[in-house]
């Protein structure tokens, strides 16, 4: 059966990718990674200088060219966008994806982030600005609690907030 939800994410060191895959299973969603052109920041075998440069580009670049994606948000009723918390701003590969695909987003969106500190409210607000719509729900998982019961609880809360949108979306799909 076609999936009703899409999860797109960017990651520097892999943590947001773990969240994306777990959410993909929980919501039976399609999952796609947003990757900068050139080496990914977490690619094995990169020298320290290249790793730092690719991370810095992802954070401070106004726009960063990204690799073509396979999936269009226009085909889904719910889209979740995930990235690491970095200095209160949306990382540039995600900004580029939103610039390319933002107009195709459905009304129902959610945001999630792996963080090193407190909830990244400024980044979620920046995401909402770039996506041009408020999220149904947000999830922030501190890196220190990934893989713990606390993470499970945060994820369950997020999925519960999104669930009301899902049966409706399935119904709409069946009716179309
Ligand atoms: C350059 C840099 C800036 C960061 N800025 C923040 C920040 O402002 N707030 C925060 O909570 N965590 C910050 N972090 C921590 C990351 O959000 C955290 O390590 C996260 O787990 C990385 O996710 P990823 O593995 O998906 O890239 C920063 C990390 C780096 C490398």
Secondary structure elements and their pairing?
Blueprint: E1 5-9, H1 15-27, E2 30-33, H2 48-60, E3 78-84, H3 92-101, E4 108-115, H4 121-131, E5 137-142, H5 149-162, H6 165-175
Parallel strand pairs: 1-2, 1-3, 3-4, 4-5
Residues 11-16, 55, 59, 84-88, 114-117, 120, 143 line the site of flavin mononucleotide (FMN).
Question: Summarize this, please?
Answer:
Helix content is 41%, strand content 17%. The protein has 176 residues and is of the alpha/beta class. Flavin mononucleotide binds next to helix 1, helix 2 and strand 4.
Notes on the protein architecture:
This protein has about 180 residues and is of the alpha/beta class. It has one domain: Rossmann fold (3-Layer(aba) Sandwich). Helices cover about 40% and strands about 15% of the residues. The chain contains 6 helices and 5 strands, in the order E-H-E-H-E-H-E-H-E-H-H. It has a 5-stranded parallel sheet with strand order 2-1-3-4-5. Strand 3, helix 3 and strand 4 form a beta-alpha-beta unit. It is globular, with a radius of gyration of 16 Å. It binds flavin mononucleotide. The site of flavin mononucleotide has 19 residues, from helix 1, helix 2 and strand 4.
